[in-house]
Design goal:
The structure holds 2 protein chains of 2 kinds. By secondary structure, chain A is of the alpha+beta class. Chain A contains 11 helices and 14 strands. By secondary structure, chain B is of the alpha+beta class. Chain B has 5 helices and 5 strands. The chains are: A alpha+beta, B alpha+beta. Chains A and B meet through helix 2, strand 3 and helix 5 of A and strand 4 of B. Bound molecules: flavin-adenine dinucleotide and FE2/S2 (inorganic) cluster (FES) (2 copies).
């Protein structure tokens, strides 16, 4: 096995082009488990942790209204430094593993692993995030919606690395919730994220750990967006009708195609998702009503 | 491959390191530092917790090659010569050590917490130690130890009436 240690992104991309079989390693919280248990024996490891460009974030876009987070920024820094601007992502980051895991684990690694249970995915989908991928051929932006292709499969080409994720900054409410057996160190049985986009009169919603890939609950998004807009609630929010919350929850559950496994049955997952959807929507809407009033 | 790393303040070098091996293996098997424990090798138990560039991490999940040119501080590096760190002292006195297997990791995690938050609340202590498992389930005593260490650190040795003779 080779251990490749580039100091710059340019070097890393050149190495990845020469050695498409090299496995990138950032926080190592997924990769090292596979190596320790001999589930994987790659020909080479490509260490990304020496590359300063990947370890910083900045606010880009015309008005600084999008945050570009380098692939190797660990969860702890997202929580401490971006909690105000990216509430949903910070919330999901707080639920990852343990302090030690959050000190090391990264969004780049979560995207690289593309596990259907990865906690950042529902938030990235609901918040309209974009994944930045680069190779020696150039850089491209992949909407999160197009990034997840199958169980642990993503849209990266063999010579590409994830360099950053772009997430629209917002003051509008976002929520993330997951179901698990305890409050720490839990792979989601199922998870859900909701993001209000008042500037676009729209709601984003996505489920995790409930289908081969994380996915948006499009019918639920459309139903709620239309409902809120037709009743003029973006300008003058009122308490949501129970029937609206229930319909939203049902549509979220319908978006899932879960399986029975050791963590939970498919039926339980669907039920739990509808509950998560109703609750998180309730919190987000209460928060929004408070802000508008 | 060769790895150069500063461990507990001293420059160290290891040769013939396998590219896929962990920092935990490097410390225990190549550098003679068995304080950090190997209990799960999958990040679940925290008994391998060390500081990497001043941040607590599971050393079983760091590739040995990733610590080249970096600084590692293990449980062996917390005491000042023969004088235990206040956190170590508090673990002994509070009876927070049973079989002791989880202790090195918990001591490092608690040490980091008190560095960042000198007077943590109980929920803050629980949250900070959520990544460390104690199979002997001595959690109440472990919480006692962290509270004791926080008190000790706030009232430095010799300045408090209850302080003398405790060792
Ligand atoms: C004890 C424990 C608890 C956990 N709890 C959670 C949890 O609660 N929620 C959750 O979502 N996850 C959890 N995880 C999984 C893991 O911590 C996350 O997926 C984390 O985000 C991985 O980031 P990393 O930097 O450590 O990735 P790594 O292990 O370094 O890499 C993960 C994958 O992504 C690839 N990769 C990494 N960076 C890049 C890049 N820049 N470009 C292309 N490919 C890349 C790697 O090749 C690998 O396939 C847990 C893991 C452990 C060990
Ligand atoms: S041995 Fe590293 S976390 Fe258990
Ligand atoms: S004292 Fe035995 S595992 Fe904690």
């Amino acid at each position: 096995m080779d251990f490749l240690r580039p100091d710059t992104l340019a070097e890393a991309l050149a190495l990845k082009a020469q050695r498409p079989d090299a496995v990138p390693i950032a926080g190592g919280t997924d990769v090292m488990v596979e190596l320790n248990f001999d589930h994987r024996r790659p020909a080479a490891l490509l260490d990304l942790t020496r590359i300063a460009e990947l370890r910083s974030w900045d606010a880009d876009g015309d008005n600084g209204d999008t945050v570009r987070i380098g692939a190797c920024v660990p969860y702890t820094r997202i929580i401490e430094e971006l909690g105000e601007r990216l509430p949903g992502l910070a919330m999901a980051s707080r639920t990852v593993g343990s302090p030690q895991i959050r000190n090391r684990g990264t969004v780049g690694g979560n995207l690289g692993a593309a596990s259907p249970a990865g906690d950042t995915h529902p938030v990235l989908l609901a918040a309209d995030a974009t994944v930045e991928a680069a190779s020696t051929r150039g850089t491209r932006l992949i909407p999160a919606t197009d990034f997840y292709l199958g169980v642990k499969r993503n849209a990266l080409e063999p010579d590409e690395l994830i360099t950053a994720v772009h997430v629209p900054a917002t003051r509008a409410p976002q929520q993330f919730s997951k179901v698990g057996t305890r409050n720490a160190m839990v792979i989601a049985v199922c998870s859900f994220a909701v993001a209000l986009h008042p500037a676009q009169n729209r709601v984003g919603a996505a489920v995790g750990s409930a289908a081969p890939t994380p996915r948006r609950a499009s019918a639920a998004e459309e139903f709620l967006s239309a409902e809120l807009t037709s009743t003029n609630q973006w300008e003058s929010p009122k308490p949501l009708l129970d029937s609206v919350k229930r319909r939203f929850g049902d549509l979220v559950a319908e978006a899932a195609s879960p399986i029975d496994d050791v963590r939970g049955s498919a039926a339980y997952r669907k039920h739990a998702l509808s509950v998560l959807a109703r609750r998180t929507l309730g919190w987000a809407w209460q928060d929004y009503s408070g802000k508008v009033a | 491959m060769r790895v150069n790393v500063t461990v507990n303040g001293e420059p160290r070098q290891a040769d013939d390191v396998w590219e896929g091996e962990s920092l935990l293996f490097l410390l225990r098997e190549r550098l003679g530092l068995p304080g950090s424990k190997n209990a799960c090798e999958q990040g679940e138990c925290g008994s391998c917790t060390v500081y990497l560039d001043n941040t607590p991490v599971c050393s079983c999940l760091v590739a040995a090659g990733q610590v080249q040119d970096r600084e590692v501080r293990t449980v062996e590096g917390l005491a000042d010569g023969d004088r235990l760190d206040p956190v170590q002292e508090a673990f002994v006195e509070a009876g927070a050590v049973q079989c002791g297997f989880c202790t090195p990791g918990l001591v490092v995690a608690a040490h980091d917490l008190l560095d960042r938050v000198p007077q943590p609340s109980d929920p803050e202590i629980r949250e900070a130690l959520a990544g460390n498992l104690c199979r002997c389930t001595g959690y109440e005593k472990i919480l006692d130890a962290v509270r004791l260490a926080a008190t000790r650190k706030a009232a430095p040795r010799g300045s408090g009436a209850q302080e003398s003779g405790s060792r």
